[in-house]
Each structure stands twice: as C-alpha cells, then as structure tokens.
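Morning!

This is the sequence you dropped in the shared folder:
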Amino acid sequence: MRRYLSSSVERFPIAGSFTISRGTKTEAMVVVCRITQDGRTGWGECVPYARYGESIEGVQAEIETAKAAVEAGASREEVRRAMRAGAARNAIDCALWDLEAKLTDLPVWKSINPGEPGPLVTAYTISLGEPAEMAAKTAEHADRALLKVKVGTGDDAERIRAVRAAAPNAQIILDANEGWSEETLEHHMAVCAEANIALVEQPLPAGNDAALRQIERLVPICADESVHLAADLVHLRDRYDAINIKLDKAGGLTEALGLRTEASHLGLKVMIGCMVGSSLAMAPAVLLAQGADFVDLDGPLLLARDRDPGLRYEGSLVFPPKASLWG
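The structure's back. Tokens below.
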C-alpha cells in the first residue's frame, strides 16, 4: 500500500457578504486535502478560522507535517491522536473516510449511522446588520422552516423583535458569536423568550461563560466556541443545554462522532453546524447530522458558486451527499 497526500487552496466568492459580530467576509478560503491509494482518491475540505488561531498557511503547514505518517498508512485514530483538533486534522480525517469508502465500496453512512440517511431541515443564516436591513433579509426567507440570525451587539433587542416580526412562523436560532456581556445577558434573554426564540448560541465569550450557571435560562443556550472536543463537555453541563458540533472545530468526523455520542449521554441537545464552505465541507456533516436536534449546514447557499456536483438543496431541506461528491 502506498498513499500520496496533497493539499490546495481554493476560493469561493460569497453572495454579497457574510457578517457576524467579529467582522465581515466576502469569500470563503478553504484548504482541500487529497489522499490517493490504489488509483482511488479521497478528499476533504476545511475552513481555517482566525478565531482559533488558524490561517491558510498554518493549516497547510500542519497538513504537510502529517504527510509522511499519512502516506505511510496512519489510520484515522492515529491521526486523531497525533494532531491537534482543528481544520487541518479535519481535512485529513474526512479525506481518509472518503478514501476508505472508495476503496471498499462501502458508503460512510453504513459505518456511522444505524439507517440510511435522509434529507434534513437546515437553518438559513441571516447576517448581522441594522434591524431594518435584517428584517428585510429575513422577510425574503420567511417561508423557510428554520432561520439562524446573527446578533452580538450591546443591544440586540430591536434586531430580535424585527426578525421575529418578519418571519412569524419560522423557528429561529440566534447566534451572538460571544458578543453579549454579563451585563446585557438577562435583558437579551428576556427579549428572546418574548420573541419565542428556539435557541441562543454562544451568548458570552468562551472561558467567560460561568454567568450562565446563575441565570434562569428562559431559552435554551447552545455552546459553540466553548466546545471543541468530547472532553470539554463535563465542564459545560451546568452552563449549556446544547452544543454545536462543527467538523473544523472537532478536527474531523472521527472526533465529532465521539462528541455526538457523549453529548447524548449527558442529555445535551445537539446542533451540527459549519463554517462557510462548499458542499465538500458540508457532505460529512450531513451524515453526522442525522438525528440531530438542530442542523445548520447552509454554507453552500451563502456562496455565489458551489462545487459541481454539490449537495442538493430544496427549500429548507439538504439531502445526503452522492458518492460522486463524498463518502
């Protein structure tokens, strides 16, 4: 057996722009890892994230450092133990899953789920902006079953009320991206309860979220930046009601599966989320998301163009990947 590993950088323009409390981006820069063996090639995509100290160059360097071990036949578990959690490990891990599926003609879903995967209701993201602007954008997508709305300013009450009025029938997740403070937390949570918000994601900065123990959680609260690995969960049970699992945070599908299982054991609800990337990044997450409480895998819908072939989206539904894409 001889493997060959390579990586490349690809750019996908975003349709318009994508704004959260930490800033605005107009393109998705991704790193793609390819691993070839016996004439078959598996691939995986990751999105380096500056919030976690990652860069395109740094992720490529991590992949290059792991190259010799992977080409010598390292297993997914060996890669998981040898590399830190993050985007680089995710790209390699997903490429190894895809390669195994191609070499064995056994779809990934048969290894990780009890039944054949089906379509899922995914959130559609509304970027942070002024209340009237956000309401107008929300109104364009008010027929969707699930919306994820970016907030995270000193006073988001008007934004919350505006988007709820614009989409009275949609289920709404609010994502503050660590943008609220202890001083504004209870005020914002009361407005969320008033607006019948389904879930509030990462209201306080990771590492500074102890205040969540003290408040009455009028709306369920979901950890995102606060959780990366299964080992994190024991410290979060008294602060959060749910966790957002992202492959780029966990460092691959292998770790994410363990995280999903541990969350279930601890009685935490599960959201499967994503960075802004192409259908290749979403494909393994769609399989991971089977049975999840919330699904937020709209990355390709935010792009001006996606891969071909890509995932199939119909309204609020995302369908499992075909083998021609991944897995």
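Headline: The chain has ten helices and 14 strands.

More detail when I'm at my desk.
O.
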